[in-house]
């Protein structure tokens, strides 16, 4: 994490979150196949990394690691693949600096310390999304929307 947030480089010993949704929901892939999702935290666009040049080699490193340690012959068995990088978050999702999870995940930028859902400066202005309370990721964003729905209902 220090390489990502302090040095702003792609770490050689990357962190991975690997999920296989077909273990609990076989309908996520055609019969006889599996679906995998892998997430690797990386520095945002402010790091100066040229993702037009680095995305594919970084993807290849991750695939080689997964094949060597967990999923033999992974690449030979891929039927469909999609990967995204900070350029996608910046250009397609309009996320500041291409940051997938908004503010840096430090204690003082987590949960209640994130920007609150109701503006403290303007009446009837509300905030929802990864950069607000309670946090990033699909569960956090959905909880944020639920909180704002409740606040708007009170108004």
Radius of gyration: 19 Å
Task: Please report the total strand number as a whole number.
Answer: 2
Helix content: 25-40%
For the sheet with most strands, the description reads: 2 strands, antiparallel
Secondary-structure element pattern, one letter each: HEEHHH
> Quick check: average pLDDT?
91
**Dominant shape:** globular
| Strand arrangement, major sheet | 1-2
Oligomer: single chain
Q: What is the number of helical segments per DSSP (H or I, 4+ residues)? A: 4
Which stretches are low in confidence, meaning pLDDT under 50 for 5 or more residues running?
Answer: none
Strand-residue proportion: under 5%
Q: What distance separates the N and C termini?
A: 41 Å
From the helix content, strand content and strand pairing, which structural class follows? mainly alpha
Domain count: the total is: 2
Supply the key terms:
155 residues, mainly alpha, two-stranded antiparallel sheet, 32% helix, globular
Q: How would you sum up this structure, described in words?
A:
The protein folds into 2 domains: 2-94, no CATH class; 107-154, no CATH class. The protein has a two-stranded antiparallel ribbon. The chain starts with a helix and ends with a helix. It is mainly alpha-helical and 155 residues long. 32% of the residues lie in helices and 4% in strands. The protein contains 4 helices and 2 strands, in the order αββααα. The protein has helices at residues 2-7, 51-69, 86-91, 137-154; strands at 17-19, 37-39. The mean pLDDT is 91.
């Amino acid at each position: 994490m220090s390489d990502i947030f302090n040095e702003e480089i792609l770490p050689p010993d990357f962190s991975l979150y690997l999920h296989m949704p077909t273990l609990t929901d076989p309908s996520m892939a055609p019969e006889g196949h599996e679906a995998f999702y892998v997430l690797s935290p990386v520095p945002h666009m402010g790091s100066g990394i040229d993702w037009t040049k680095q995305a594919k080699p970084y993807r290849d490193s991750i695939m080689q690691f997964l094949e060597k340690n967990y999923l033999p012959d992974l690449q030979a068995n891929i039927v469909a693949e999609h990967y995204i990088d900070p350029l996608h978050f910046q250009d397609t999702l309009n996320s500041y600096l291409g940051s997938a999870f908004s503010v840096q995940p430090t204690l003082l930028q987590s949960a209640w310390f994130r920007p609150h859902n109701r503006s403290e400066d303007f009446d009837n202005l509300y905030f929802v999304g990864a950069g607000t309370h309670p946090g990033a990721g699909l569960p956090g964003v959905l909880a944020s929307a639920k909180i704002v729905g409740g606040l708007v209902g009170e108004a």
